[in-house]
Amino acid sequence: MRVILFAVVFLAFSLALSGCSQEEKKEEKIYVAAASDLYHALSEIGDEFTEETKIEVEFTFGSTGLLTQQIQEGAPFDLFTAAQESYINKLIDKNAIEKDSKEYYALGRIAILSKDSDGKPIDLNGLLKPEIKTITIANPEHAPYGKAAKEALEFAGIRDDIEPKIVYAENIRQAYQYVESGNADAGIIAYALLQETDLPYELIDPKAHAPIKQTLGIPVHSEKKEESKQFAEFILSKQGQKILMKYGIDLP
Fold first, then answer.
1. b/e for 175-203, b at 16 or more Cβ within 10 A?
2. pTM of this prediction?
3. How many other CB atoms are there within 10 angstroms of residue 159's CB atom?
4. 7-54: per-residue pLDDT in tens?
5. CATH level 3 topology of 109-208
6. Where in the chain is the domain with CATH 3.40.190.10?
7. Strands (E) located in 109-217
8. Which CATH number applies to 29-107+213-246?
């Protein structure tokens, strides 16, 4: 009887340990707040990182400004890949990002994507064409790529002329979708999102706007700091940077 009782207890204990082990494996995941321009590149980097480390990565893509606000309010993210350095600096000043975790990982580029009928790309002055009736950019109030677009329009001296045509998107990926779907005739889009489009596009001279210094950092409230550091290092590694370059993102 004692032998049977011992066997039952041992089996129950083994199952409990097995359950704990499986739960630990399930919890081997980090949550990353990511700028929308990184949708394609970071998704691929995340897949390769998971394959090598068995650590899953779940992304929330959005505008850098809105993600910054969420992190400041305590949203449970383990890493933040922002589209502009100033937002990481703001969170460091608010004691919401680990100061020592700040790293530059990319330089962003912008381009004009269009559905021009002749299939040829247009430059900034081409946005003045009467057939270009709607132009989309990300909201410059909280999206660094939108701010860069606004600066480029001002640099070209055409912002006031095309202001009535502008449709503001929540983030740069939504702006891309507006043009792809035909809801906008043209848009100033992150170059990193254009690697798989069949539509014509024209790169904008980086001198037309302030540098888009993409920067990452680890939130202070993250409970997965070691895993987050691993992923940050993977993004900065030769393997990660090669993928960024594949999507047209310049290295820092």
1. bbbbbbeeebbbbbbbbbbbeeeebbbee
2. 0.85
3. 16
4. 444 444 444 555 544 444 445 899 999 999 999 999 999 999 999 999
5. D-Maltodextrin-Binding Protein; domain 2 (3.40.190)
6. 29-107+213-246, 109-208
7. 110-114, 135-138, 166-169, 186-190, 201-203, 212-217
8. 3.40.190.10
